[in-house]
Amino acid sequence: MPSYTPPLRDMQFVMHEVLKVTEELQLCPQHADIDADTINAVLEEGGKFASEVTFPLNISGDSEGCVLDKTTHEVTAPKGFKQAYAQYVQGGWAALSCDPAYGGQGLPFVVNQCFYEMLNSANQAWTMYPGLSHGAYEALLAHGTDAQKVLYLPKLVSGQWTGSMCLTEPHCGTDLGLLRTKAEPLADGSYAITGNKIFISAGEHDLAENIVHLVLARLPDAPVGSKGISLFAVPKFMVGADGGLGKRNGIYCGGLEHKMGIHGNSTAQMVLEGAIGTLVGQPNKGLAAMFVMMNAARLGVGNQSLGLTEVAYQNALAYAKDRIQMRSLSGTKAKDKPADPIIVHPDVRKMLLTAKAYAEGGRALGVFCGLLLDKEHGHPDEKVRADSGEMLALLTPIVKAFITDNGHISTNACMQVFGGHGFIKEWGMEQYVRDNRINMIYEGTNTIQSLDLLGRKILGNNGATLKKFGRLVAALVEEEGVNEKMGEFITPIAILGDQVTKLTTEVGFKGFQNADEVGAAAVDYLRVAGHLVFGYFWARMAQVALREIAAGNTDQFYLAKLQTARFYFAKLFPETATLMRTIRSGSKSLMDTDAALA
To answer: Which residue in the list 204, 376, 443, 517 is annotated as catalytic?
Structure first.
């Protein structure tokens, strides 16, 4: 059976020693009183909830799955899920970072980020039920009418109700301009919505008494394509003016998907037959409103893979210390045993350190993005708010795609550490591989994220935002450039920063002549950019570790951080050289292949 220990020490290191989040947050009026002790205490309790309440349900939830009653269209979640959700609500966890005006606790989003990492390590399938509610809350907070906010937000904030995101249809996934769901206006100002949605995570379940579905649909006179999409709030049960629940609405689950992973979450086929909904935002401007929820979901999906990488690493490390196989190539290490523990073998260490480096790098990036979100929404300086939002927009596709790709690499590597036992269900490792795999697909496939990064976020503004991140790298290089001990961390990111600038110019020029050049380069480009970002954060973490060691701190945590940083730059970061070569090879070897793909 697997185990899980919340990585509180590393979270505290990133927040308080590297990124100084309390100093940053205290500049925001609503967080002026926040301090490290409060953050640490909240996360310690959150870690207990994750490890003690939801983690024990992970394997059983995977085995049991969800059950649909085809007569009533009700879905029952695995045993224990509903009770765990009730504890989550009772503990006030749903309200952690929500607006106090609607019953929230008003804590920083960065705290919620760390809490959700632990929940994802413990049980991704369960965590998706409350996780989607945060996106619905954010979309309604940003674009809902006053009446919608009063009606829905207090119940979403408390966790009494949950939310879902209804985008995908059988004939269209990413290309939402093809969607066919119709919304007919009614005399009272509401709409009757008819259509079919698929792959709706947490679309139907028994954890909460009501579900607020955010549904994309077309008005009768809507323009064709993505410019003719509107967003609607469609509750599972109709809601009275007093907030009380009325009759069942015309939206129901027509089937559950049989999936590779996340069996404990209900991935629903949703049928709308004249379901009553209200317009969110402006007519035909639904994508803008939905993107608030989608961007929150993309950050959340990266966090899911971060959580799985961490828990897979913890279990692989424990196994590698205990499992004995063969002798070390450099001589016997465990003389009292018939063989050495497999952790002595170089390739086993490489697999473990790969997962560790990607988990800790991803955590630093995730916390940084959480802090950017807090500053975007709460900093008193308009320029800081705008700059934070712009930087977050640049990093969102990297969080979603790079961290989930790394999660795929890491969970597979950790399963490999177990050898044949990793393939056996009771150890839990194969579930982490299966559960992580969807993270590379939904909320926009990683290819879509790559096209978004290169085409829209970088080439779309002539690299202006990328240059802003480049200035962060340059500032660190300038600060530590003469420090010989930092050279092994600073030199690689300084060189890659210059290379990325030149590469971006080349790809942009070729793409101007042939758009397929951008499509051919995008996936590899995102991975190069991801390493630049991770390299920056690993250099900053190494900087702190070196300072602590130089000051005489004997805590082995800092030595471990330094060793992991050296591994990252020696064994993972050099991937960028190959990627840049494949980018420069262009699109011809991909597109001039009609005969090969006939």
So the answer is: 443
